[in-house]
Amino acid sequence: MALKNQYLIDLLETVKKRNQGEPEFIQAVTEVLETLEPVAEKRQDLIDAGVFERIVEPERQIIFRVPWVDDNGKVQVNRGFRVQFNSAIGPYKGGLRLHPSVYLGIIKFLGFEQVFKNSLTTLPMGGGKGGSDFDPKGKSDGEVMRFCQSFMTELCKHIGADTDVPAGDIGTGAREIGFMFGQYKRLRNEFTGVLTGKGLTYGGSLTRTEATGYGLCYFTNEMLQANGKSFEGQTVVISGSGNVAIYATEKATQYGAKVVALSDSNGYIHDPDGIELDIVKQIKEVERGRIKEYCDRTSHKNATYTEGCKGIWTIKCDIALPCATQNEIDGESAAILVKNGTYCVSEGANMPSTPEAIETYLSNGVLYGPAKAANAGGVATSGLEMSQNSERLSWTFEEVDAKLHGIMKEIFKSCDEAAKEYGMAGNYMAGANIAGFLKVAEAMKAQGCV
Ligand code: NDP
């Protein structure tokens, strides 16, 4: 979809010039501006208020050194980031990614997406994202703790329960959040809800662990039902085997689907009889092992392991849920999915489909649940964790799960309605971008040129 509106064409040119060497960020901005074209045509007031120019520029970008000492006594240096993208509708909120591929462009793309996603949740949260090129894989608990403490020693100057509330993301799970929270508390001498995804004994929320994967399935279920379909009896392929993938598998299975594949960054497993999730949880959540170990432990004789990630999209399925990382489905893989009869792709990971893949879904009538909407259940439940921390109360699993379910239904409804209102019925990506944008845009306009 090429832009036709001259104002947006010029703006995108500026974004490209100003953010050279950051292809993921430019990709994310391009997708959003393309779908906002009908809004720009209709809302001259937002153009006059400079909302479009301001929303593509982060409010603040912080980059810092993270020195720590490894188990051999050697000094290691990583780079830390926090991009505070937009605070028009609430304190900055978004996860911390710990992965060797992290650099400013990745954090900016994630922060930008987060602005729209958080707006869609109906909760008062602005958008931000952070992380580091530190790789927790293969590190001892002591090394991870020393890294997290050093990381928080700088980050604590920039965050706070009413300013910026980080959470987990790739590589940042309960262990890392615990170490970071402990260091924040020690340095600031305050016990506040400054991070979400906390352990249940110190302010965490029930259902937060499950939230992104469950939320993805709640959203996908709404989308399927609106189009006369359901999870019942369907074959599902899910990439990744981390937090999002595991709980998407759990909920899709509860909905009556059969999940037949999962992966990690080394390769994928295919179990035509249906993945035994308890084995995956033990390998990934307890032992921090590799997905290939599944085949040695399952009683299912037909389970196989294949090296490499991309092949997972050649497995025949009705529904695909990418839950690993950005740009994991390219045009070629999308074409194979379509050829194999996949009629629904819904995104647990952030921006897992390349622009060519999205084009392939849309031109072939594939039901497409975009990440911003489909994976918003994680941050929504983080918002609920913040509410519980403010109240100094804990809600039951059922209460939080019911609220999450309600939020995901609302998100689907607003995407569906916005797409219809702007003449793009069934294009939930356009609907998500427009609905997410409008709320933030109205707030930015009301608050003046800041
Ligand atoms: P985890 O670290 O728990 O799991 C990530 C999974 O994806 C692992 O199986 C990992 O394999 C795999 N993976 C990571 N990077 C790559 C890569 N470059 N190539 C192939 N596989 C890769 O992360 P989450 O489950 O939390 O996050 C997954 C996705 O969901 C991310 O895009 C994240 O931004 C998004 N997301 C997460 C939310 C949350 O609440 N956790 C909320 C919203 C979105 P390996 O173990 O080998 O690294």
Topology, element by element:
Layout: H1 6-18, H2 23-35, H3 37-42, H4 44-48, H5 51-55, E1 60-69, E2 75-86, E3 92-98, H6 104-120, E4 127-132, H7 141-155, E5 164-167, H8 174-188, H9 208-226, E6 235-238, H10 243-254, E7 258-263, E8 267-270, H11 277-286, H12 294-297, E9 304-307, E10 319-321, H13 331-339, E11 344-346, H14 355-363, E12 367-369, H15 371-374, H16 377-391, H17 397-421, H18 428-446
Parallel strand pairs: 3-4, 3-5, 6-7, 6-10, 10-11, 11-12
Antiparallel strand pairs: 1-2, 2-4, 7-8, 8-9
Helix pairs in contact: 1-2, 2-6, 6-18, 7-8, 9-10, 9-16, 9-17, 10-11, 13-14, 16-17, 17-18
Helix tally? 18
> What is the number of strand segments?
12
Global Rg: 21 Å
Oligomer category: single chain
Largest sheet: 7 strands, mixed
Strand order of the largest sheet: 9-8-7-6-10-11-12
What level of helicity do the residues show? 40-55%
Topology as a string of helices (H) and strands (E): HHHHHEEEHEHEHHEHEEHHEEHEHEHHHH
- Uncertain segments of ≥5 residues (pLDDT<50)? none
> Overall mean pLDDT score?
97
- Structural classification: alpha/beta
Shape: globular
Please report the distance between the alpha carbons of the first and last residues: 31 Å
